[in-house]
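ok here's the first one, seq then struct tokens
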Amino acid sequence: MFSTLVTMKKLIPFLFSLLAFNLSYAQVFTDSNLPIVVINTNSQTIVDDPKINCDMGIIWNGAGNRNFMTDPFNNYDGIIGIEIRGSTSQQYPKKSYGLETRDVLGNNNNVSLLGMPVENDWILYGAYPDKSLMRNEITYSLFEQMQPYSPRYVYCELVINGQYMGVYTLMERIKRDNDRVDIAKLDFDDNAGDSLTGGYIIKVDKLTGSSNTPWTSTYQPKVKFLYHDPEYDELTQPQKDYIKDYVTAFEDAVYGPNFTDSVLGYRPFINAGSFVDFMLMQELGRTVDGYRSSSFMYKDKDSKGGKLSCGPMWDFNLSFGNADYCASYDTTGWQYNFASVCPTFSTEPPNWWARMLQDTSFANQLQCHWQYLRSTILKTSYINNWIDSTALYLNESQQRNFQRWPILGVYVNWNYFVGNSYQEEIDYLKWWFESRSLYMDATLPGNINNCSFPTDVAESSLENDQISVYPNPTQGIVFITAPNDAAIKLYGIDGKDIPIVKSGNKIDINHLTNGYYVLIVNQQAFKIIKQ
């Protein structure tokens, strides 16, 4: 259905001058079901760089309770350093921001915001071309169930200097930390032996935005590697050389004549399972920047495993059919072949993805894991439930957001589909997910002759599209959309029965510690995350 609608995508040209009135738009905002973030710049202008010191308060009265602008700042009330973030996204009138929580002396202040683990580096992400308001969020939520870490996030509404700014996502910045990418801390004096071998976070990226000094692949001049954490100027020369040489050795192996050999090939250098997860998510989302931009990798010390891992996922706002160039809107074809579709771009995916697919064992591992995920968290009914539940959670706030930024029915760079309503955007996202999944079902390389599927509670989940559980993750309140006589039980991840406190369609789990739980609704299993 949606393939016949793409011709309408540019009926209204993308001219920001037509939207300039938004910059002075006055909107009365009094209360929300989402947390409210309030920033006062004290008459300063937020710029790209450097961060300015100003004040931030967060109003959050707990899941299921309303938050009022007249309420006290009860989740955070203090100083932050803030700047505009992003590269191409800075063209949009709705800005995203990087911020640090700081003390009165301007030093980093590690705090917990909205139930997320203690840290000082945060992002206020403002979706603009993604009118579903959830492409990044569904990616992070899915990947969190595939790998040890994916950025945590909480939806909120933002007010800056008394002006309502719309729906935002307060989220974690990718960095090394015990509660983020949990690898060893690399100190300045770690220059030899095992201490030199980790932990590094690097990325394949374009040379814009916050990117720092790169090195270039010896095999592809359009593939640039960047030091992310620690950054380039935080590393010693031996540390810079070590991680560069390690990645080069991996490339030598993957492009070498013995690349499939278990000893001489590429596998001793990488955590193959993380590469499988990364590739499946990149291909499912078919983000136009996939593989060639914002593609993170990390390496721990050799004594702690020490192989190169792919992830976490990042920057999926132009994914799932939301970009109108380089065939990324097409639910058929493969994103790792981007360079053959758009050869004139200055960046391209590393060729090691196509090379690894020539390895039968990797292709089979990819296919087996895809089949498992399709029976669990990538089942169409599961995806539809997640999207519908999130849309229901955002139903009130999205209306204010699109009053503030009236772009429904308007082409925004780089929309492929332009829905005339929020529901049309949601329907298109669900259609694209299903269509892309069916294509991958039919054409993904590899076979499943020797697959061994792990046991997981999600395998039995979501056969019934009439049951919704949201929000998930939750800070303490879970809402259930189900028949009134539905049988509901809650279990710990250890399988122990947990008494529940239920009021109407609401379950209160504020008294439970943060972690994973299994909620059974009419014999359908939902993996709940309390954070």
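and now the second one, same deal
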Amino acid sequence: MFAWFYNQYTQKIQLRLTVYFLLLLLPLVIVSLYVNFRSQAVLLKQAEERTRGALTSSMDYIDLSLQNVEEFSTLVATDPNMLRLLHQVGPTLTAQSYVNFADMVKQLSSLTSINHLISHAALFHAPSRMLLSTTQGGKRIERPLHLLELQTIAETKGTGIVYMMPDTPFPEQQTFGSVTGTNSISLVRTMDLNNPDRDPNLLIIGLNKEKLLDLIRSLLPSPHAQIYLYSDEGKLVTGTGSRGQELRQAEEASAEEFTVRVDSRYYKWSLILVQPKAELYRETKVTRMYTYVIIAVSVILALLISWAVYSGIASPVQRLMKGMKWVGSGNFNIRLENDRSDELGFLTRSFNKMVEEQQYLIENYYEQQLRLAHTELKFLQSQINPHFLYNTLDSIYWTAKNYDADEISEMVLNLSSFFRLSLGKGRETFTLEETVTHLHYYIRVQQLRFLDSFTVSYELEEEAKKVPLLKLVLQPLVENAILHGLDSREDGELLISGRIRHGRLIVAVQDNGKGISPERLSYIRSELGKRSEQEAGPLSYLEHGAKDLYGLRNVKSRIKIWYGPDAELTVESEGEGTTATILLPLDRCKDEFRPQTQGPVKPHEVRGA
């Protein structure tokens, strides 16, 4: 692709002009895109700073609220009246025990009304295994593993405070929330903080999830934004979306989302806000759209200007180039249209005058040389006919001695057909298919002469059948194959093939005869090579004292004159059999490439590029 573009770039002025104008626009495009992306980055940074400040303030307020809840829990855990009521109840429940439980629940209820962040409170009385709750009343913890887990919490935490999620695992496939009857994060601590020999009684304070959500919901900048509160263990406390129960899931934002995280300074809780970047970039969307429109209009203008410059300057130059190509191919009747009076108009007028003068010189001098070369071609072609006629008459003579008159009549019939087609009504070329049909009459004469001692076959590709071929170029090759290769064989085979490869017509005559000795083959190639080494000129292919190889020499000379220096004749022989191959440039295998001797070519004009 790069090589093709470079080739077009070096050959097309219009493409170069377009590239130049686009390169002029490149700095504008780069600066516009940079400003656009830079404005988005600045906007994103400012939004992050504002959001982080708001989240930090909200996180500080949550810390303060949690501190108030912990202070309330301390007051309850050290309240003498609550401790007295707890100690009066033993393992066996009495009527007084239920009275004491009722008083404790009443005091816990007053606690929830004081602080709006507390949703409910509960007491676990270890001796009686009773769980007292402001929302569910009292219930006995019957399962030993659950009792053991609650006692373990009390013993391991001591006088400290622990926040437990409702989905914290408990024995027997239960959770902390299902055992204590809560669906929110809970503050858990032991009662009677000043007594080291206390029973493992627990105070459980549940935080109001809706109140916590109200504290952070006001921070949402848009309807599509989401906010989440996570505990110090990375567990979801509350949130507005369905991001996930783990902190890492909330932080896995896509490239289209904007995420800000703030951590608590005291409790190590985390507050995360997630917002689509498209909402942040809404303000810059119009500016970005105008930037793209300006870039598109600039590119279109560059293309239009390059086309205008090309039409005014490069197009006349293109016409001059095409005209020169026509002149280079031999057409001196070309005339360029010219309606300009500037420098390019002067060049066009000068070109037309130069071509007119060149045409005059060619018609008065070079055409004489072409006529002389064509006369030579006619002479070389006529040299074959007497030799061929002699051999044909000799064949008829030997056939008459060996056979009855029927074969002689057949030979005369084929011979007459051959001569009739050779005249060709003045035609110089036939298609390859017609040439082989013509050639078969001659081969049939030779088969009759040699008592059908050899067979002939044809392999012509469909594409090659319609290619014009100079007449009588294959007959000398076939004659050599029969007389010098197959004359002494009883099972001779002659193959004539035609194909097109790599822009050339390849016609081969192959036999399975005795072949050619290496010395003789070297001599033949040397003599044929001399036909290519001679200097060009109208009389360059005349014979100079040749004593043999008349047929091969004449074929080589004729194809060189008719098809140019790229035409070749090769002879190959390896031990047994010989192959003579003619290779002709396909672009010259047309009637219009024959030497011109008369009649001007009809003038035509090269118009717009």
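notes on #2: The mean pLDDT is 79. Residues 13-77 form the longest helix (65 residues).
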